[in-house]
Amino acid sequence: MRSPQILVWESDGWMARQLRELVTEHRWVLRPVRSARRLRQLLNGSGICGVCLLQFEPWSDRREPIELIAEMHSRWPDIPVVAVSDVKLPEAERAAWTAALFDLGARYVLFPPLTKVVLEDVVSGLMMACLKRVIGEGNMHPTTKADPHPDTAEGSPGSSLTQQKHEVIDLSEEGDEI
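RE: above sequence
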């Protein structure tokens, strides 16, 4: 059986390093990629992709990451894309970029300050959803199953069924940058 994997397209390896402990703990596959061509090859043929993280630079002349988000949304709609920037922007610009990337198909858009914990939470939540969709919750390995939360029963105010598809998470108040 092909395993779901986490694909990370970035230039510096920071995201892959932050996720290494999480993927080891859950026995997931982490695939760092350096080119859009290689990313497309992996999406087309080798394994089931669970989550894709793409690094983008706002205001850069390099349009490839932005175009790739839109392409992934149309060609591989079941694969959630997390757009990650390491550029600090004023609140209005962050909101504009977030809205634009949501429109193109990104599931989450993250800006600094970005912590390991936030990155792990986003990726683990998306991977759990992928695993439930692909193999079913009853067949999941015990170390992979999410802990049940009794206060978030289906349909309750805290359940994911009542939340919007796209959430804006403002991390500007976080003080523990990595």
